[in-house]
């Protein structure tokens, strides 16, 4: 990043009409991950108020990092991916729209 030419910060208010949208983008586009909002924090921002229903939100299943650095052949990756698809069982939340 240090080798790239410096660019002036763009004025997001000229691109986005909504002040909550500008605030959300400024918090999400920070390069420093220590200062950038997490996904959970972002969902609490005013921009998302009309889109979210916290009662229907569930924690994501943990990500399995075990194969991140695995050196597998293409056929092994295909086999693993196919097995994952066949054995995947998503957690289905009760929805207000589908519950009786």
Automatic annotation (TrEMBL):
Q: Which InterPro entries match?
A: Kinase-like_dom_sf
Source organism:
Oryzias sinensis
- Source superkingdom: Eukaryota
- Specify the protein name: Uncharacterized protein
């Amino acid at each position: 990043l240090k080798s790239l030419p410096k660019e002036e910060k763009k004025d997001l208010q000229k691109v986005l009409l909504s002040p909550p949208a500008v605030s959300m983008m400024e918090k999400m586009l920070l390069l420093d991950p220590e200062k950038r909002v997490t996904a959970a924090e972002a969902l609490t921002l005013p921009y998302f108020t009309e889109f979210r229903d916290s009662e229907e939100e569930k924690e994501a299943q943990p990500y399995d990092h075990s194969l991140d650095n695995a050196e597998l052949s293409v056929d092994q990756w295909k086999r693993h991916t196919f097995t994952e698809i066949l054995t995947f069982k998503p957690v289905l939340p009760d929805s207000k729209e589908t519950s009786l």
